[in-house]
Amino acid sequence: MLDEVQVRAETPGVGAGLVFLDSAGSSLPPRIVTETVVTHLRREAEVGGYRAAQERLDALDGVKAAIGRLINAAPASIALNDSATRAWTDFFYAVPLREGDRILISGADYAANAIAALHRARATGATVEPIPDDPSGQLDLDALAAMIDERVKLVSLLHVPTNGGLVNPVAEATRIAHRVGALVLLDACQSTGQLAIDVAELGVDALSATGRKWLRGPRGTGFLYVRPDLALEPQRLDLHSATWTAPQEYRIAEDATRFEFWESDIAGRLGLGAAVEYLLELGPEQVYAAIAARAEYLRKALPEIAGVTVRDLGARRAGIVSFTVDGLESTRVRDRLAEQEITLTVSHASSTLLDMNRRGLASVLRASPHAFVSYPELDRFVAAVAALR
Ligand SMILES: *Cc1c(COP(=O)(O)O)cnc(C)c1O
């Protein structure tokens, strides 16, 4: 069991009457993360960025090692960058596509991914087709099996959508995609730091994640995992992703650094490493159990309020609780709760257009409690929702 008292004590943002329910947006970091970032920024101010980085070389190497332990991957298969979208698009734009090729996307795929897919389809003559959802609302494996053929070059899978708590059957879907040799790119932005992730077990070819959500890292951090034996050529190279070897020659890095540029926010990276180390120390399984229990608690309590509908789909549920309140705009609910120091966000149809249009929803409220949220805080949130109407 997770020591909730300890986790709360190590999170400077909790207490003081704040109820924080937005770890699916941008979470509250543990103290060690902020300290790591600020300490490094101070050091840069004292000795300059190069020497400050030189002094932390071991810690910088440790960032990929920690992420590797978290997702069961070799450090060399990880590229650090500034967001999940950067990671996703770096991989996606490297996949060769031509006229007649097919890109399959998930029913609740994130807008940034869908836009990139449509963008490249327009440029290459490939098509973008959504994979239907099954009656539970998760990815329909039979539909996927019926859709695939040799022209499918990439399948975009979504682990946990941005607008609800379901968990898609990624390992099963990946096996189906691999039957025709399609590459599988997994958006694990909402699952990393929440669910325990094992890329070997999932079998995906690439995975994208962000630092600031469930991992509780700094903003402007993210990473890409790429299967080590996959020799894709990035769309852009620099003097870190490649080496200038002769006047007319260069050599692309053999490992995932081929997807990195030289310059980076060193303090942010160190902070991301601290966040991952912290999670590993707590135990990812225990953290997930605490998150899932809090989400289930809300899924029981919220529907007891007249006019409140929980909108989560799927057979297996994670830590995002989506809901609507009859007769009240989601943004209005969010703002009124904010006046009471209760933080949650709204997920609009434009973020997950296919899914929201299909369900006829313009927006949903999104409550995403991390392990540092106490049950009395959840009760205060539920009472505040009940008092709205
Ligand atoms: C937040 C989110 C993203 C984008 O993450 P960034 O770090 O902002 O690029 C991608 N996919 C899903 C499902 C998300 O919720």
Outline the structure in words.
InterPro entries: Aminotrans_V_dom, Aminotrans_V_PyrdxlP_BS, EgtE, PyrdxlP-dep_Trfase, PyrdxlP-dep_Trfase_major, PyrdxlP-dep_Trfase_small. Residues 19-381 form the Aminotransferase class V domain. It is an enzyme of class 4 (lyase). Its EC number is 4.4.-.-. It catalyses: S-(hercyn-2-yl)-L-cysteine S-oxide + AH2 + H(+) = ergothioneine + pyruvate + A + NH4(+). This protein is an alpha/beta fold and 389 residues long. It folds into two domains: 4-29 and 284-388, Alpha-Beta Complex (Aspartate Aminotransferase, domain 1), CATH 3.90.1150; 32-281, 3-Layer(aba) Sandwich (Aspartate Aminotransferase, domain 2), CATH 3.40.640.10. It contains 14 helices and 15 strands. The chain has helices spanning 4-9, 31-47, 49-55, 57-71, 84-92, 111-124, 141-147, 170-178, 199-202, 266-282, 284-301, 330-338, 353-359, 375-386, and strands at residues 19-20, 78-81, 102-105, 127-130, 152-158, 183-187, 206-210, 222-226, 242-246, 249-252, 308-310, 321-325, 342-343, 345-348, 363-367. A seven-stranded mixed sheet has the order 2-8-7-6-5-3-4, sandwiched between helices. It has a four-stranded antiparallel sheet with strand order 11-12-15-14. Helix 2 (31-47) crosses helix 3 (49-55) and helix 4 crosses helix 10 (266-282). It is globular and about 70 Å long. The mean pLDDT is 97.
